[in-house]
Amino acid sequence: MIVLAGTGREVTSAAAKLAGETGGHPPAGGSVRDVETFAEDHCLPAIQANALVFDLAWPLVAVPGASSVERTLWSYVVEPGDRWRFPAEGEFLAPEEVTVTFDRGVPVAVDGETVSVAEALRRLNRRVAAQGAGQHRTEDGRTFAAPGALALVTAHRALERATLEPGLARFKRQVDREWATLVRDGQWFSPLKHALDSFVVDAQETVTGDVRLLLHGDRVTALEPRDDQPAAEAGTRPGRIAAQA
């Protein structure tokens, strides 16, 4: 039985189907739909809550009695054979720009090509990792990699800065921090986390537009977002943020 760490509740969602003996990959026999469902039900809420990738480095699921399972929220959307390559030490690549399009907080296109949430993560995994971004080493020596998630969270945060009313944006930052803490502590099914989910979804109504990301030198930098709503009407201005693994 797989339970959410700290809750004692069985996982009956797509997470349980994708875990077990698969190492985080879809079970044999083909379960692309399970991967897509998991990405929408678990990865998308984290993106919309701007949960920094490595706030989720501790396992989402754990086997009772085991010390830990080194499997992150993001690893479930990685298909067998879909491995990305980080550059070797001293290897430098030319800067690359990628545009991510959001519709009410949901990533729907990468460089103009329509994608699902899972496909957006997979495409950005390869491109961001090639620039050396998206790795995190813990104090005890474990390494977690989620380059695609780093890019989507960076882009989403920048677009919220350009589209949310300042008071709403300020309060949502507090909600985002609490959301990440709850998930890190294994409280995925807690009443408080459920309430925060509802708030986060409601706040996405105006989060629509394109965000240009600059990938270079182990950094993911959000350039000026191009949103459907003029920044002046939203009461804020497009921002420029950087996130470094």
3D structure, described in words:
The protein is α+β, with helices and mostly antiparallel strands and 245 residues long. Helices cover 36% and strands 18% of the residues. The protein contains 7 helices and 11 strands. It has helices at residues 14-18, 32-48, 117-130, 147-163, 166-184, 191-203, 231-234; strands spanning 3-4, 61-62, 96-103, 106-110, 113-114, 135-137, 143-145, 209-216, 219-222, 226-227, 241-244. Strands 3, 4, 5, 8, 9, 10 and 11 form a 7-stranded antiparallel beta sheet that branches. A two-stranded antiparallel ribbon has the order 1-2. A two-stranded antiparallel ribbon has the order 6-7. Helix 3 (117-130) packs across helix 4 and helix 5 runs antiparallel to helix 6. It is globular, with a radius of gyration of 18 Å. The model is unreliable at 1-30, 55-70 and 229-245 (pLDDT under 50).
